[in-house]
Amino acid sequence: MSPAAAAPFPRFRVLDVFLTGARPADAVGAIVARASDRSAPGASVCVFAADSLLKCRDDPRLAAIANGSWMTLCDGMPLVLLGRLAAHLPVGRCYGPDVMLGVLDRGRAAGLRHYFYGGADEETSRLLQERMEARFPGLLVVGREVPPFRPPTEAERRETAARIDASGADVVWVGIGTPKQDFWMGDMRPLLKAPVLVAVGAAFAFHAGRVPQAPPWMRRCCLEWLYRLCAEPRRLWRRYLLGNPRFVALVLRQILTRRPGPLGELRTEP
Fold first, then answer.
1. Domain contains 237
2. CA 81, CA 99: separation in Å to the nearest integer?
3. Would the pTM count as exceeding 0.85?
4. How many domains are there within the chain?
5. 270: exposed, middle or buried (C-beta count within 10 Å: 0-12, 13-18, 19+)?
6. Distances from the Cα of 152 to the Cα of 187, 197, 245, angstroms
7. pLDDT value of position 4
8. Could you tell me the residue range of the domain that residue 55 belongs to?
9. Which of 103, 94, 169, 175 is nearest to 136 (CA)?
10. 174 phi and psi angles, rounded to 5 deg
11. What is the chain's mean pLDDT, rounded?
């Protein structure tokens, strides 16, 4: 299904990816509504920051998954600012952990059933479920699992699909990191009956209390990258110290050369 046929909001192009021009509350509402409708075609939601766009630049398969998604939300202030200033869309930061909390909360009234796929280990998965159920009384978590740290076999994919389908999940939350989680959705979407799959990366670790989040003021001021770099320098230094300048250079080239098109020129409408 193409973005033009499926997207609930306009999309704008940055580098190789059509991003969704949505505010957080609107994105949450759209996910809850879609997850409540089992007659609708299955949908996938990617949540991308600038680093994700660089990965798409290096791997056309990932770009194809993002552009074929129902929504590819902006989980980074640079993308939000590009959407507002260059594409003239009312974009808000759809921060993955906040989108997850919003859907868990608002989905209670609709009786949505949730499945958690991912987490670094069983303890993280257990804590995530316990903390979310304590925070949102009445929340329906119908299953959770921690996948192995290797690509699943075809038999394992089908076994996983059978478990998730048997749970009756309406929303499958995928927290195994970009691009692994996005490829997983691309492989699993045709196999699953769940109306919505959402890839939320580090949200599992944050909400389980295993990894600290940046203070809200740093997130508002585009400084979350600095907080995370200081917290996990060995893992993230390449992403931020090499990736951020590369992203800026590529976006400037897109604007100045108008290739593959100026920001906001290539849009799909809902």
1. no
2. 19
3. yes
4. 1
5. middle
6. 10, 18, 34
7. 38
8. 11-217
9. 103
10. -115, 115
11. 88
